[in-house]
Amino acid sequence: MLDILDYINEQHLLEEGDGVLLGVSGGADSVCLLFQFLKVMESIDISLHVVYVEHGIRGEESVEDGRFVKKLCEQIGMPFTFVSVDAPAFAEAEGMSLEQAARTLRYEAFLDVAYKEGLNKVATAHNANDNAETILFQMIRGSGAKGISGIDVKSKRKNYEIIRPLLNTSRKEVEEYLQEIGQSYREDVTNASDDFARNKIRHQVIPVLEEINAKAVAHINQAGAIVSRMYDGVMQETLELLDGIMGENGLRLEPLKKLDYDQRADVILAYLRYLGVARDVSKVHIEMLNELIFMEVGKEYHLPHGNIAKVTYHHLKIKQDTSSESGGVNWKEIVIPKLEEGETYQVSAEDVDVSFYLRKAVQSEEIPRKIYAKRFAYDKIMGNIVLRHRRAGDYFVIHPDGGKKLLQDYFVEEKIPQEERDRIWLLCQDSKVIWILGHRNSEDYRIDDETKYVLEVEFWRN
């Protein structure tokens, strides 16, 4: 029977006292991970917390998946958090694929819950098949060595370690294990669709490769591991080169031009990663930048997501896109803790003071029509709420029937000046805006006859 403890110890994924967030979708892989971790807890002293992220893509079916995970956690006595995001709106606002938007928001939710619960690691259920599919996908899109080395068994996001304990376990082994223990799981219909590039690889490419060699998935994983080891060696050399070439104004052209083509490409990509602007940068972009450094002063090349590379007299300079159209500046984010009945919580956020008070609802609840005070149905708030400035993909519900509007569109329609938009404070749950402080609030947190608890929020300019 499947046992991932040896792999966890071999890869040094867990230590005594770790607090681990498990991302569980209800599918076979994540349900397998959950039950494997119950066994791991018998050998290693760790605490667990399960989170389910509803991406706003599959409607009621996705909500049902969340209910399945919640019920499963209740049966085994596991702490559980449900998080809802709007991946379609975020994808449209950011100009990215729906799959990528969902992944970005999912990891943001993971880290948010991990912070709230005081955890230090996040475990995801990527398996050996996922890794093989990723390697093939990266090869097809023209990625470099880092891309085709596959999924890292552990990586860092902010201050959290992301671990993938099923990475050497095949999908077949996962399904056989669940059958052996008699555990059901949910099927995601989007996994059966070939609308996503990775699904085409899963359903059409991998089966053909396994016809040629039954161990194709394992061999692709082995190749990725070899490339990863080679990449680590090259990367160390690249970082040393970057350290000698990078200046305050960009990459110094004179030493950069003296490198051979491959070294220049590696240094340029490492620099983009250092700046945090490497998302969606492919081999083609790096080739163009390699040519750009030999062009006359003033020449520019546009990178993905509005970033611009420019040749100056002595440097290759990257101008990062900080325009408000790309989501504005998130100066600060304040997480509002879960409140108990009768509890008050106050925060000071740069230019405003905000007070939160939780109480029981009363019959015929009077709703104040004030721009500085609002009341919300606390029962409808699932998970953390935060006080912050706007981000790309933010939206709110404008009609009782669920109609949505992007925050950016609201600002345009209300003719709110560009310079003010990044200074407006928002009370949010993930990408959903509960209240635009000083302006309107979302319809789906309104108090109704079913409301048991009311959250009173007031703010003052300081």
Key descriptive features of the protein:
462 residues, alpha+beta, Rossmann fold, Uridine Diphospho-n-acetylenolpyruvylglucosamine Reductase, domain 3, 3 domains, 6-stranded mixed beta sheet, 5-stranded antiparallel beta sheet, 21 strands
The CATH superfamily name of the largest domain is HUPs
Distance between the termini: 62 Å
Strand tally is: 21
Major pleated sheet: 6 strands, mixed
Helix run count = 16
Walkthrough of the structure:
- This protein is of the alpha+beta class and 462 residues long.
- It has three domains: 5-219, HUPs (Rossmann fold, 3-Layer(aba) Sandwich); 248-321, Uridine Diphospho-n-acetylenolpyruvylglucosamine Reductase, domain 3, CATH 3.30.465; 333-461, no CATH class.
- 40% of the residues lie in helices and 21% in strands.
- It is built from 16 helices and 21 strands.
- It has a six-stranded mixed β-sheet, with helices on both faces. The protein has a five-stranded antiparallel β-sheet with strand order 7-8-11-10-9.
- β1 (19-23), α2 and β2 form a beta-alpha-beta unit.
- α4 (87-94) crosses α5 and α6 (128-140) crosses α10.
- The protein is globular.
- The protein starts with a helix and ends with a strand.
- The model is unreliable at 323-331 (pLDDT under 50).
